[in-house]
Structure formats: C-alpha cells, structure tokens
Amino acid sequence: MLPVLVVHGGAGTIPKDRVEMSCAGVRAAARAGYAVLQRGRSMDAVVEAVTHMENNPAFNAGCGSVLNVKGEVEMDAIVMDGKTLASGAVSAVRNIANPAQLARLVMDKTSHLCLTAEGANQFARAMGVPEVPGESLITDYARMRWQLNLAPGANPVECQMGKMGTVGAVAVDADGNVACATSTGGILNKMEGRVGDTACIGCGGYADNRAGAVSPTGHGEAIMKVTLARLILFHMEQGLSSAEGSDLGLATMKERVGGALGGVVTVDPQGGWAARFTTNQMVWAAAQGDTLHYGLRPDEVLTQSLAPE
C-alpha cells in the first residue's frame, strides 16, 4: 500500500466559523503532497504538503501564525529524512513565508541541525530566500486573538483556545523511505525568543526507516518533556502499530505532564498510518491508493476519491 502521505492542521478546539476552511485546507495539502509523492521522494512530498499549509491563513504556520507578546511573528519548522537521519530545523525565524523550505535548506546545505533567530535569517539571505514584510504574515484573526489575550485577567488556558493549528506531514514513498515535516507559529502571546517542540529533533518530528515517521501537534512544552515523536517510534520498534504506538505516546504525555493533550500523524515503512489525538478535534487527511481519508473528531474517518475535484 505504498506510497502514503498523512497531514495534520493542528489539534485542539477549532472555532465553528473556521472548521470548514481548516478541513478543506488539509485535504488540499494532502492532495498536493501526494501528487509529488507519486512521482518521487517522501521528503519532497512532506515539504510540499507543509508549504501548502504555510500558505493558507487557516493554520498557525507561515501566513497564519499566531503572534508573540510583542505582536510579532516568530516561527519554527523541522524536516527529517528517515533513510539517512538527516534533519534540518529553524527556530524563532522572522519574515520568511515558508520556514519548512528553509529547514530543508539547513538540512541540505549545512552541517548543522538547527539555526535560530537572526542566524537563520542570515542563512536564508545567503541562500537567496526572499524575505517578506512581517505584516504580510499577520492575519486579522491572529491580531484579534493577540489583543484579546493581552487583556487584564486573561485566563492562560483560555488564551490558547481558538488558536489555529500547527501543521505537519509524514510520508513513506514507493521505496519505503519515510520523512516528516512540521511547521508552526508557536503558542499565542509567547515570550520573544521562545522555542517550542517543533524545531527540536525527536519532539516536533522524527523519521527513521527502521520504525516510521511522526509529526506531533499540541502544547510544545509538554511534547518536549516526553520527546513525543521519538517516544512513539520507540513503541513501534517494540512491535506496536502506528495507531497503537501513537495512542500510547499520547497517553504517556497526558499522564506525565499534567493532563496535557495533543495529536500526531504517523506512518510506518510498510504503509501503515494513523491520525490520533486526545483533544476534541484535529484536522487531518491521508492519501493512499486512490482514496483520500480525512476527519476532524475522534473516530471520524471520511473518504473521497483522489481523482481531481
């Protein structure tokens, strides 16, 4: 059942007026990534899928990113190749439309795993990556949420409700090579310079041909405490399926980190896949064969043909 690609657009509670655009966004991203996957490598496919979501203001990545405490956009992204364990990441990067593509350049063009802040932007300029005005990455919705959460007495839990989602993709190609990519604007009203799970290998993503690939979403600090992506692959190395390993990893995070919730998309080298979450909702889509699977709520799996819409 190769190849297969699975994407997520974030776990949490999506405002009713943003549900359809989020669901449509992951379906479109899965189609775009799968078209690349059918012609080539899993790494190219996951970057394509994530780029598609970074360009969609429905999500907390790229042009829909949430704002930090100063009202500015700082983004994190990671990619990883399961064949070689090559990885690249950027953190707290500004004025870049597609951080996932910049993370890919870190992997391909440097000997480092992660570049941060101004160093990442200097590298982008050296690579000829165009910078965009910071304002072009800020949506009216993101600015509204930022202002609301600055209000005196704002509840820190409610501050994170209604935020758009981190985006991610995992894939296995026809040769059995897995890859992952994850991109985010982080958490609402974060401190300047905050780095979450997304840019950290083993937390915001991990890919290894010996086990599979994972892209998580949720509260970054909780994900980092259990190194969620690598934890799930550890369980899969012990013989659990993609779904079983994902469920066990998420249950461990919930148990060990104060009831923390989240979600993941996971694939194994044989084409088994899962989209699992402990939140009320997670938008996801999976392309395999001639069918697009997708869902929003727990245990919801809808399908449509992958023939052009």
From TrEMBL:
Supply one GO BP term: proteolysis
EC identifiers of the protein: 3.4.19.5, 3.5.1.1
Site entry: Cleavage: G165, T166
Question: What reaction does this catalyse?
Answer: L-asparagine + H2O = L-aspartate + NH4(+); Cleavage of a beta-linked Asp residue from the N-terminus of a polypeptide
Query: Can the keyword Hydrolase be found in this entry's annotation?
Result: yes
- Reading the lineage from the top rank, the first entry is Eukaryota
What protein name applies here?
A: Isoaspartyl peptidase/L-asparaginase
